[in-house]
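pinging the channel bc i need a second pair of eyes. not urgent but kinda urgent?? the chain im working w is below, pasted from the shared doc
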Amino acid sequence: MVGKQIKSEVVAAAPDVTFQVRVRDESIGGDNPYKWKDLTSNEIFDGKRVLVFSLPGAFTPTCSTYQLPDYEKMYDEFKEAGIDEIYCISVNDSFVMNAWAKQQGIKKVKMIPDGSGEFTRQMGMLVRKDNLGFGYRSWRYAAVFNNRKVEMCFPEAGKIDNCPDDPYAFSAPQNMIREVYNVVE
């Protein structure tokens, strides 16, 4: 079993951020029936037990092959373990996150576009990925927030700018479900 990985650079509570998201609005005609909506940290975290997993980028190999699809497949298990919602966050804009969710067939996991990287920066997880042509992105991690407070956080090992590897173990849903059940027991 992977132990708790709460690190000193991770904050104690969810940062107060407003995300700009594109949401479907049936009252809008035409080929693009979407409008901008502000989504606040309060709406996401207040009064709920929420699992957030963050990743370097939409459409990237590990994120698209394992991380996002596996959280989607295991969504109901997390709900049974007392998680109210699961959110995928990435330093991408809402257009990219929506297109990725559609391409992946995501119906349960909710997407958070952290286009400016503000939430990620305040979490202490913003890293440079210039070695891959990405610029600033999120370090891969998963965290459970209970009414905004960080209950547990599992950043991947070796967090550095321009990391030559793409570690993926601690933030995997298979690890997180064990940890969530350990807290419940």
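so The chain has a mean pLDDT of 93. and The CA atoms of residues 44 and 50 lie 8 Å apart. — does that match what u expected or am i reading it wrong
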